[in-house]
Specification:
Layout lengths: L2 H13 L5 E2 L4 H10 L3 E2 L11 H9 L3 E2 L3 H10 L4 H20 L19 H9 L4 H8 L1 H6 L17 E4 L13 E6 L2 E5 L2
């Protein structure tokens, strides 16, 4: 997509108070997203290989967040029946991008592309993010404080504090012992009401 078209589309969204997401799949798409002032990259761009330090710096400077969707890449590539070494290299490139962005102070948001892929268990995504060097506190931030800040709702949600929306998730295991604990949900509260209890 031409950058001028992407900018025009983004302006329509911003004029309506909406964030702008981009589905960049390669280095060219990433350049267009940067030129268009996109708010969130809907996926990492492993086909582009490791990001340069200047690209990472620009992503941080322009406050562009990333939803890596690492497990989605793993699933998609395996559908092509390529050698496992190729899968590891491709997903490893995406993990490198996550690691570089996180280390530079960029914003990483949790997401899975569930619905497009038929894997609804988030355990593998969490494991791959941990493999990119994210500790449990950083993973917690991708699920809570970072999205609240990126979407301008940090005064209402993302933390446990008086006066904030009572959206809570209780885990059945300790995330400090393994990233997949974030997928082991005991119960969920939305706006103060329990909407899920583990059977």
């Amino acid at each position: 997509m031409d950058a001028s078209v992407a900018r025009a589309i983004g302006k329509v969204a911003r004029d309506r108070g909406q964030p702008v997401f981009a589905h960049a799949t390669d280095a060219g798409g990433l350049v267009v997203a940067l030129q268009a002032g996109v708010d969130v990259l809907a996926h990492a761009t492993p086909a582009a290989g490791p990001w340069s330090p200047s690209t990472v710096s620009r992503l941080v400077r322009e406050e562009m967040a990333l939803v890596p969707t690492l497990a989605m890449f793993e699933i998609e590539i395996r559908r092509e029946h390529v050698p496992e070494a190729v899968v590891r290299r491709f997903v490893g490139a995406a993990q490198s991008q996550v690691s570089m962005l996180q280390a530079a102070g960029g914003s990483v948001l949790f997401g899975t592309d569930a619905g497009y892929i038929d894997q609804y268990d988030t355990s593998r995504e969490l494991q791959l993010l941990a493999g990119a060097g994210m500790g449990w506190r950083q993973l917690l931030a991708t699920l809570t404080t970072t999205p609240a800040r990126v979407f301008g709702e940090d005064g209402e949600r993302g933390r446990v504090a008086p006066g904030l929306v009572a959206d809570l998730v209780a885990l059945d295991s300790d995330p400090a012992r393994g990233a997949e604990a974030f997928a082991d949900v005991a119960w969920t509260v939305r706006a103060g009401e329990v909407i899920y209890r583990k059977p």
